[in-house]
Specification:
The complex is a heterodimer of chains A (299) and B (545). Chain A has 299 residues and is an all-alpha fold. Helix content of chain A is 71%, strand content 0%. Chain B is of the alpha+beta class. In chain B, the strands form seven sheets. In chain B, strands 11, 12, 13, 14, 18, 19, 20 and 21 form an eight-stranded mixed β-sheet that branches. A four-stranded mixed β-sheet of chain B has the order 1-10-9-8, with helices on one face. Chain B has a four-stranded antiparallel β-sheet with strand order 4-5-7-6, covered by helices on one side. The longest helix of chain B is centred in the N-terminal third of the chain and has 40 residues, at 2-41. The radius of gyration of chain B is 27 Å and the shape is globular. The chains are: A mainly alpha (299), B alpha+beta (545). Chains A and B meet through loops of A and helix 7, helix 8, helix 10, helix 13 and strand 19 of B.
């Protein structure tokens, strides 16, 4: 009885299982079936753990100066050596995880929210709004995202927060365009037309029909973007426009280490490896996710 | 069978590669012994070739009256010459473009006889009148000659009674005046004909009387000079009395020091002004020579804006002085190759008072904390000093060259309870802000050849200029004025000793270290010398072809 009455209700009022954005358990299973993705996921999980437990794991305070141990090569006391002013490289690297993770999450948040919103709006409304917004995005896309980020930091002033903002904002155009593309195919699909014809509200269609259907693209692109965000922030810090000293950010460490390439190889090597490893894992994971969400591929 | 073959070929390849290595090693050995042989046999300079010098900064203009940049004064100096010169061996003032000079008894009139037969690159002959016009141009406020004007401040009139005689009348006698006349960059004669012809473009097409002629300026990359074939009026201390040996001299601008070192390794630049750590690495390298000399100036000091409401308190400034462990900073920044500075003058400048070593503010954390406490500050729960709810916090404004000392100072400040944040900005903006007094604490270094530098750095008339600390101390002002007008050396020494004492006791600065100047030179460039008053002495150098 209840089932029958449910069917006669207007579509918005029906009780549909919530949380369409949930990654289903079998998706996770599918990811795990990709060997490379499995290792990457495990590695990233480990990195997150390191970030969370940094104060416990780091042997020293990252900003403590050991005046009697300047430029020490890796040793028992300092596993990855010390820098020119006597700071423990390992501790700085471990604390750097926190900075790197928060940066990527923050930048991602900006791009994700703004990019998805603009993309969906453009696709759904179309016409003049689409034209204006997309032309603006096109103009921004004409500039490489790092140049755009540089300009934003130049206006706001160099700091880690501004670098995160800059990286986030600079990636909105690409994101918006991608989401718009994916959403356009949904717009012309039969089920959207059907919903419209029975008078579903715009917000309902956007939330319940557009969003779940672009989830695949969203997740893949988001994962890949984490890599870009980490790299771009490190690049900004490398040229002195990101994290300000003494923040132990990987890009800053790399930049400080490059002045000692001849004398102290460990200073640039370890932050460089850390950035490479994390960005690689994120990208591999992104690739695997793309295969998982691609309806044509069989997991 | 196949496997065997493979193994054989592997073996062959390995042997081949190994023999290549051995051959390479042998041949390089031979080369180096040949090099040393050349060193012994060949000491006669060869003409021709190019010397390339790397510089981190690019000049703003090559008009010596309109620039304030060190690199611009160095490059324009190569294209120009000065009335007098500093002998690099004895540091005595010697004639250069002036054949002779006399100073009147009251010290106010300087009469110089200009050497005959000197012509500018554009063919204009150098006369006393040209020099008068040059000085007039510097003194004309419309020119906007900030730095150059400083060097000839105190001139009443300049006259040229005939082509050969230049008479300079000073308002008051000036001790540093003669040594200033030895500045080849800022105080070189300029051809007014060239300036009129070029107009605003003069700064990019300079004309001088020096051994090098301007050829080309590629923005952001290099400035090329070619030798002046007419030149035969070099300084008396040079062996080479004629035109320069190399054909070309190129200044390449490379911002990043590591890139610069790589350029030196690859041979695309010959001379690099390097940091201590890099110089150390090249000392044992057969291909390169390291020239080093004690720098005339303070390599690093903290300047404090005493108009700031917290830094107004002498106790806070003294505590800051005592918070700095200079030895540690030297170890980290200069690889240990520097000396702690206790006063505003280095031992290489006349008038340096050795007593400053005993009365200077020494590293002492306990006393620093006590001083802060006596001014009403006390540590809060986070270990930072606090007074009436306000925390003891400063911002250190610096450029990227001082990132390292900035972080060490930050850590040392924290140990006595001062929270220091570091703001890194571009060098030009930094200078502008600091000159305007829009800062709390900053780093600076200077090089100069006379204790009169204290006038530029501490006299109240220099607020808005290099008196970044914004010091207004009547007693100090009087001493510094006296110092520039006193010619008698012992008297002058006493005056500067007193000035140094005031500056240290008032703790206007926190001097950190004096350093050496290092140049790494590719050995294909021979005969290069270094002096602390003149920098690189290029005129005797030549390129081994």
């Amino acid at each position: 009885m209840t089932k029958l009455s449910e069917a006669y209700k207007p579509i918005q009022a029906r009780s549909i299982p919530k949380a369409p954005l949930n990654v289903k358990f079998d998706t996770l299973k599918k990811i795990m079936s990709y060997k490379r993705a499995k290792y990457c996921l495990a590695f990233l999980f480990l990195i997150v753990i390191i970030g969370v437990f940094a104060p416990i794991l780091a042997p020293y305070n990252p900003n403590k100066l050991f005046y009697d141990a300047l430029l020490q090569p890796p040793s028992k006391e300092h596993l990855l050596g010390t820098d020119a002013i006597g700071r423990d490289t390992l501790s700085r690297l471990i604390y750097g995880v926190r900075v790197t993770l928060s940066v990527s999450v923050f930048a991602l948040g900006i791009t994700f929210v703004a990019g998805t919103f603009i993309g969906l709006i453009c696709a759904y409304i179309g016409g003049v709004v689409d034209n204006i917004l997309m032309r603006i995005m096109d103009i921004l896309l004409a500039l490489p995202s790092i140049i755009l980020a540089l300009a934003i930091v130049a206006i706001l002033g160099p700091s880690l927060t501004n670098a995160m903002l800059a990286v986030g904002i600079a990636s909105i155009p690409g994101f918006a365009r991608l989401i718009r593309g994916a959403a356009l195919t949904i717009k012309s699909s039969g089920y959207v037309e059907a919903s419209r014809s029975i008078g579903s509200s715009h917000s309902w269609i956007l939330r319940r029909q557009f969003l779940p259907n672009v989830t695949g693209v969203l997740i893949v692109y988001t994962t890949l973007f984490i890599g870009v965000a980490i790299l771009d922030t490190a690049a900004l810090s490398f040229i002195g426009l990101g994290a300000q000293p003494p923040t132990s950010e990987w890009g800053t460490m790399l930049s400080e280490g490059k002045d000692y390439l001849y004398e102290a190889w460990w200073l640039a090597t370890f932050p460089g490896l850390a950035i490479t490893a994390v960005v690689f894992s994120v990208n591999f994971l992104g690739d695997a996710l793309r295969d998982v969400f691609d309806p044509k591929s069989k997991g | 069978m196949v496997v065997k073959h493979l193994k054989k070929s592997y073996l062959l390849i390995t042997v081949f590669i190994l023999s290549m290595f051995i051959l390479a090693a042998c041949s390089s050995d031979k080369e180096s012994t040949k090099d040393q042989g050349d060193d012994l046999n060949q000491s006669t300079p060869q003409s021709g070739g190019t010397i390339t010098i790397a510089a981190t900064e690019e000049p703003d203009t090559l008009d010596p009256h309109k620039t304030g940049m060190n690199v611009a004064s160095r490059i324009t100096g190569l294209m120009g010459a000065s009335l007098l010169t500093n002998d690099p061996e004895t540091n005595e003032i010697k004639p250069f473009l002036a054949d002779s000079y006399t100073v009147s008894k009251d010290g106010k009139t300087i009469t110089l006889k200009i050497r005959q037969g000197i012509v500018f690159h554009d063919g204009t002959p150098l006369t006393a009148k040209v020099y008068k016009e040059t000085f007039d141009r510097i003194l004309n406020p419309e020119t906007g000659a900030k730095v150059a004007a400083n060097f000839i401040a105190g001139i009443k009139t300049v006259s040229a009674p005939d082509d050969q005689t230049l008479v300079i009348e000073l308002v008051v006698p000036s001790a540093p005046f003669l040594s200033n006349l030895a500045l080849e960059g800022y105080l070189q004669p300029l051809s007014l004909t060239a300036i009129e012809k070029q107009g605003d473009d003069y700064g990019r097409n300079p004309v001088g009387v020096g051994p090098w002629k301007f050829k080309e300026w590629v923005n952001g990359q290099s400035i090329t000079l070619v030798r002046n074939e007419e030149y035969k009026w070099s300084q008396s201390f040079y062996e080479n009395k004629e035109k320069a040996y190399p054909e070309k001299l190129v200044y390449k601008f490379i911002k990043d020091t590591q890139t610069m070192i790589a350029a030196l390794d690859s041979g695309s630049v010959d001379i690099v002004n390097a940091a201590a750590k890099d110089a150390q690495r090249y000392r044992n390298n057969k291909k390169f020579e390291v020239l080093e000399i004690d720098s005339q100036g303070i390599g690093l000091f903290l300047e404090m804006n005493i108009e700031n409401k917290i830094l107004k308190d002498k106790n806070v400034r003294k505590a800051i002085n005592m918070a700095l462990n200079k030895e540690t900073i030297i170890k980290a920044v200069l690889n240990g190759e520097g000396k702690p500075a206790n006063g505003p003058l280095p031992p290489t400048i006349f008038g340096y008072d050795p007593n400053v070593e005993s009365y200077g503010n020494k590293y002492n954390q306990e006393n620093a904390i006590k001083l802060l406490e006596s001014s009403g500050w006390s540590k809060n729960s986070t270990g930072i000093m606090e007074k009436d709810g306000e925390v003891l916090r400063f911002e250190l404004l610096t450029d990227s060259t001082h990132k390292q000392p900035a972080q060490i100072v930050q850590a040392m400040f924290k140990e006595i309870g001062i929270d220091l944040s570091i703001q890194t900005i571009e060098a030009g903006t930094l200078m502008e802000k600091v000159s305007k007094g829009e800062y709390e604490i900053s780093f600076l270094k200077y090089t100069y050849n006379d204790p009169d530098v204290l006038y530029i750095l501490f006299h109240s008339s220099q607020i808005g200029g290099l008196n970044h600390a914004r010091v207004q101390n009547a007693k100090l002002d009087a001493l510094l004025e006296q110092g520039r007008t006193t010619i008698e050396t012992e008297e002058r020494k006493k005056i500067y000793a007193e000035a140094q004492k005031i500056i240290v006791e008032e703790a206007y600065w926190a001097p950190i270290y004096t350093q050496k100047e290092y140049y790494i030179v590719n050995k294909r460039v021979r005969g290069l010398k270094l002096s602390n008053s003149n920098g690189l002495l290029i005129h005797d150098s030549w390129v081994k072809q």
